[in-house]
Amino acid sequence: MYSSETVIGLGTPSVKNKPIEQLVWPEEGLHAIPDWVYTSDDVYAREVERIFQGPTWNFVALEAEIPNSGDYKRSYVGPTPVVVSRAEDGSIHVFENRCAHRGAEFCRHTRGNNTEFVCPYHQWSYDLKGNLQGIPFKRGVNKLGGMPRDFRNEDHGLKKLAVTTRNGVIFASFTHDMEPIEDYLTPEILKDFDAVFNGKKLRILGFYKNELPCNWKMYHENLKDPYHATLLHSFLVVFGLLVAGNRSAMVADSKRGIHGTMASAKSDSLYAAVDADKKKEMRSFHEGMVLKDERFLEYVKEFDSEWSVTMQTIWPNLIVQREMNTLGIRHIVPNGPNSMIMLWTMFGYEDDTEETTRHRLRQGNLMGPSGFLGLEDNEAMKFVQEGVRRSVTDRSVLKLDSENIGTADSLISEAAIRAMYKHYREVMGF
Ligand code: FES
Ligand code: FE2
């Protein structure tokens, strides 16, 4: 939809990448965001340490991806590579994908099944729980070389993370005394989380993976920004999925304000009834657009929820997507300040009929890296990153619904983004 010209000057100017001690939050407080949160290498390093490796529960996998003992998946906590493994006794383990010997990222396959993990470099082997079990030539050869007598395998296992699950969703943390996942997510977020993850077994339908040339926080902000949804996305607006004036909600958790649910109830008719005065504000509303295949927007009511669409942002690395009957998660993997990787997993339920699965897959075209509703966000965030990274101006404005921080009653609000930055500033010391 947009032509992209050759990018000139990809390097970040030094003014946008100052040392952390020179960074001061703007005097506007939560009514402004300084560009350096998106561009500074130092800020990024502190985020990895204090957020992703700090006291947070990070999404790592769905249980349905590793149903049997010996199943494993290569995953990430922030940018840190980990392995999610199911042991012989059915328990789930998450450990760093870094050999305890010389540091090789030993697990090379996205997913698989095995009875042990063997590092390709010097073949140290680990059991399914991440314990070191074997070292070739541990005692040397002909009484020469080898490990010292007092070397104990128990002291040289893989670095293990704390693990928890909620209805088939696996989270891990570098912090071992984390609060229970239910307390972390809070009741207001669990309500819609549990509507999707309701205890029924999931069936994995497929994966996407893409890189976005933007800071990882922008993706959270995008899904805490209902304002853009009614303006940027022609598809949403024309087909009545989210229109200013529809019944909708932008909820932020009241404990920390970092998780969110953007929810809306679709109009009953297939096409949106938009009044003339609203149309004037919505340049992406195109009169007379029709669908060739109307099954595409059929909503089969199957969830214990008043909403037809819920998009949940779960701090710091998970998006739960329920767009009518298409279900998926997006796993955010930060990749330096100016890039992030998005890992998508689309799913249904094990007891779905063939017809329901077809419907979910058909509707799945709304989402994904080039989905009818995903495409524009990717472009918009790229534009923002290019703008904040290469300009002289140093902050953006966050004033919609200005008195409010957290849950908003209106779609024309940035209150949920402010709640996220309130917490962020505390954790980051800004
Ligand atoms: Fe893995 Fe040496 S680095 S066995
Ligand atoms: Fe969007």
From TrEMBL:
GO terms for molecular function: anthranilate 1,2-dioxygenase (deaminating, decarboxylating) activity. Its cofactor is Fe cation. Residues 57-172 form the Rieske domain. Keywords: 2Fe-2S, Iron, Iron-sulfur, Metal-binding, NAD, Oxidoreductase. Gene3D superfamilies: Naphthalene 1,2-dioxygenase Alpha Subunit, Chain A, domain 1, Rieske [2Fe-2S] iron-sulphur domain. SUPFAM superfamilies: Bet v1-like, ISP domain. Pfam families: Rieske, Ring_hydroxyl_A. The keyword Oxidoreductase applies. Its EC number is 1.14.12.1. Belongs to the bacterial ring-hydroxylating dioxygenase alpha subunit family. This is Anthranilate 1,2-dioxygenase large subunit. The lineage of its organism: Bacteria, Pseudomonadati, Pseudomonadota, Betaproteobacteria, Burkholderiales.
